[in-house]
Every structure is written in structure tokens, then in C-alpha cells.
Design goal:
Blueprint: E1 2-7, H1 10-26, E2 30-34, E3 38-43, E4 53-59, E5 66-70, E6 79-83, H2 85-93, E7 100-107, E8 111-119, E9 127-137, E10 156-159, H3 163-173, E11 179-184, E12 190-195, E13 200-205, E14 231-236, H4 237-246, E15 253-259, E16 263-269, E17 273-280
Antiparallel strand pairs: 1-5, 1-7, 2-3, 2-6, 3-4, 4-17, 6-9, 7-8, 8-9, 10-15, 11-12, 11-14, 12-13, 15-16, 16-17
InterPro entries: DNA_clamp_sf, HUS1, HUS1/Mec3
Pfam families: Hus1 (PF04005)
Protein name: Checkpoint protein
């Protein structure tokens, strides 16, 4: 079992660091899943039991100049590591001006992702900084829990307004309530609402557009939902705020799928990164 990657391009290093930093804001621990073509950051939260779920997918060729890995065996050519993304983020942030950065799976006092950076220097003597990020190797018998989550059979799919705008709204609402209702329809409308015994506040968005796949029709083409009908989910406002605060992916598209009174499925798409985040409803 081996893994070694090298990043030379500064823009790729900065982008990779932003992705890892985003993940670190969403969870204290997650699984880094490696295969020959892609990297995945996975949080297989039990959404049905109130936990959040996350699936972040990166194409290694868009980040690494060199990338080599060998899994447990040819039939399972993957490596799954439990890692604290904050530790990896911290290591990457300290080497942003490096001439090159190598990330390697090593065995020291425990399994580690070793981040080695060659830093620029005024002399002919190279200067190398090394960080060891402890990881746990996940045995193959547990890999079945790390599969990509299936796309929920949603009632509404809608494009999101600018995430910064949503963040500003949620930041204000969190001072009034611990819970927030997200509702939307297939006519491009979305509302964010809080209701307590003392106050009722709502923010309305219009003309957001709906992704083509969410056309409100069943597979045989027959309409299944009134486009003006609202689907809603009541969520823990802190979990939504956590998602918004940590976002550094700068997506080209951001979408929201709603399973009525069940789960909200947030999707951020960049040309070389996709991030899915699941927040369950609360009673």
C-alpha cells in the first residue's frame, strides 16, 4: 500500500488548500479515499439519525503533477484513511510559497500523511519543511460505508442565490432561533424562514431557476408535482451556518435539492471539484 503525490503549480496548491480548509470547517474527522484517478473526502453521517453527510470529489490530475498509488491489492486498488482535515489544512497553509510540495503515506510512530515542501531560499542550499499528519488506515471490511451517497428522490431542485447572500441572512437569523425552514418550489422561488413565539422572519428569493434534471416529472414524463407547490425542510441553523462559513470552493454552480420534511441536499460544483452536503430535518 503506497501513496505519493507532488504539486508544483502554486495555483493548484492554493486551490487544494482551499478545498481541504473547506472540509476542515465542516467536520473534525473524515475519510480520505484515494484511487488512481480521484480523491474523495467522505463523511458518512447517518442522516436518518440526525447526522450530516458529506461527499467531496476531486480529480487528481487537476491538482497533482505527479501521482502514484497502490491499494491493498489489484482488486481493491484504493486506500482509505481517517484524517483530521484541520491538521492537513494547517500543514498546507504553512507551505503556500513552496517551490514544490510532496504528500506521501508514511509509517512513523503511526501511519502519517507526510507533507514535505521545498521552500525558496537565497542560497544554493535547499530548505525543506516537513509535517506529519497522523491518519488511521481503514480496513477493507468497512469500505462499504464509504460509497457515494445516492441522489435523493427529491421533491424540489433549485439553483441557490449567491452563498455570501445566504450567509448574511443566516448570520442574522441565528441570533433569533436555533432552527430555520428552507422552502422552495419548481418555479424558481426560495424562502428562508424562522418562526418563534416572539418573532416571525422570512427572506424571499425569486427567479433562481431550476436545474433541468429537476423538471417535476416522473421517468415516464407525467407531471408529479405542482411547480408552485413548496417543499420545505426545518434544519438546525448551526449546521447550515457551518456549511456557509467554511465554503472556500468558489463554485461555478450551487444547487439545493429538498426532500419534503426529510433532508436538504446542497451541491457545490467547480470545474474540478464537487461537494455534496446533506443536512437532515429536525422535528
Amino acid at each position: 500500500m503506497r501513496f505519493r503525490g507532488k504539486i508544483v503549480d502554486v495555483a493548484c496548491l492554493n486551490h487544494f488548500t482551499r478545498v481541504v480548509t473547506t472540509i476542515s470547517k465542516l467536520t473534525k474527522t473524515c475519510v480520505l479515499r484515494l484511487n488512481p484517478d480521484k480523491l474523495f473526502f467522505v463523511l458518512s453521517g447517518k442522516v436518518a439519525n440526525g447526522g450530516v453527510g458529506m461527499w467531496c470529489e476531486l480529480s487528481q490530475a487537476n491538482f497533482f503533477d505527479e501521482y502514484q498509488m497502490e491499494g491493498f491489492n489489484p482488486e481493491n486498488n484504493e486506500i482509505c484513511l481517517e484524517v483530521a482535515p484541520e491538521n492537513l489544512s494547517r500543514a498546507l497553509k504553512t507551505v503556500q510559497n513552496a517551490k514544490s510540495v510532496k504528500v506521501k503515506l508514511t509509517k512513523k510512530h503511526c501511519p502519517c500523511l507526510t507533507v514535505s515542501a521545498e521552500l525558496p531560499t537565497m542560497s544554493s542550499i535547499s530548505r525543506v519543511v516537513t509535517h506529519d499528519v497522523p491518519v488511521d488506515v481503514i480496513p477493507t471490511r468497512l469500505w462499504h460505508e464509504l460509497k457515494e451517497p445516492s441522489m435523493p428522490d427529491f421533491d424540489v431542485s433549485i439553483y441557490l442565490p449567491p452563498l455570501k447572500t445566504i450567509k448574511n441572512v443566516v448570520d442574522r437569523m441565528k441570533n433569533l432561533s436555533n432552527f430555520l425552514v428552507i422552502e422552495a418550489n419548481m418555479n424558481g422561488k426560495m424562502n428562508l424562514k424562522i418562526e418563534t413565539d416572539l418573532v416571525s422572519v422570512s427572506t424571499h428569493f425569486r427567479d433562481l431557476g431550476n436545474p433541468p434534471s429537476g423538471d417535476g416529472a416522473s421517468q415516464d414524463g407525467s407531471p408529479t408535482r405542482d411547480p408552485h407547490s413548496m417543499a420545505e425542510v426545518r434544519v438546525d441553523i448551526r449546521k447550515l451556518q457551518q456549511f456557509l462559513v467554511g465554503q472556500q470552493v468558489n463554485p461555478s454552480k450551487s444547487m439545493c435539492n429538498i426532500v419534503h420534511q426529510s433532508v436538504v441536499h446542497l451541491i457545490l460544483l467547480h470545474e474540478d471539484v464537487s461537494l455534496q452536503y446533506f443536512i437532515p430535518s429536525v422535528a
